[in-house]
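User: I'm putting together notes for a lab meeting next week and I want to include a structural view of one of the chains we've been expressing. I don't have a solved structure, so I'd like a prediction I can at least talk through. The sequence is below, exactly as it appears in our construct file.
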Amino acid sequence: MTRAKSNPKTGLLKKWILGINGCFILLLILTYVTPYVSVGKWGWLSLLALTYPFIMVVNGLFATGWIFFRSWYATFSIVALLAGFSNHTRYIKLFSIGGGKAPCEESIRLMSYNMRGLSMIPVKKGTGIEGKIDSLYNALNSLVEFPDILCLQEAAKGELIAKRFGMNHSLHAPKSSLWILSRYPVLKHGELEGEETSPSCMWADLKTPQGTLRVYNMHLVSNRVTNTTEELIQDMDLKNENTWQNIRFIVSRYKQTTKLRAIEAQTLRDHLIKSPYPSVIAGDVNDTPLSHTYHILADDLKDSFKERGYGLSTTYESKLPLLRIDYLLGTPSIYFKDHYTHHIRYSDHYPVSTGICLQAQAGS
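Assistant: Thanks for the context. Below is the predicted structure for the 364-residue chain, given as structure tokens.
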């Protein structure tokens, strides 16, 4: 009995597919190391991290395809995906892991929201800014629990928002349009100034029923490439010089702002280390969970989404999938009771919220 001859064309095609698969595995591994690489010389890796969800899905499709054809080649992508499991949970959670009984009966509700200056909130004719604030109040009031502390970025008329929301204490950092609104008294507050950037973070010590809590509200330097990126995605013609100009602009701009964000993040971390109280960091980082900036900020801190999140982590509405750039982080003594991303379309960002217990002072 003679063995059937293999088709040379089929063998060549399989090699091509395997080669492409190998390239995507390499790209996936590169995204894993991105957080640990200094942005000084390797800033382009941070740009690669933006495509991580796409690279992850492609590797999943390759693994599925090889399994369908009963090929052991599926092992390559499966191993690569499993190696980065902790990274995947920064973007998507298929289930929320319970943390046992919360160490406090009533948690402190904290929300972070980049409001884009209230510019996207619809308003009835003749009601003006007050009408926009009423619409925002009604939207947030429909949530499970109204926030006790509200960290706002790109906010306008924060004093009117505080009044409408019944928050007696409001702090403003005018140079960076940051606001901290609180139901709790403010003991002390300040702004952080970086050596090479304008103030991008403010902080406040708040007297809560559970003890003193330090809250950082940040808005790290923006890439300002959204319009160019969306134009590139819509009209990707590699033969067009305008396409390459846009690519060069995005890469150059992203490398520049990534360095600045790393400086801002380090300034915040240096201040946080000296905090005598349980602390939370809230705000718009303008970088993904696989960025060097996030690594600087979140190293040894708790991430509310990783702790209590469920589903997709998207916080910014964009043509890029799973773009998560807004965070709630806490020092080890902070207990996150839950995590919510609220799909309120009053900005290009979605507000994120959590319930907090101060474990150190709650006896847990």
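A couple of points you could mention at the meeting. The chain has two domains: 8-88, 108-362. The chain is about 40% helix and 20% strand.

User: Perfect, that's what I needed.
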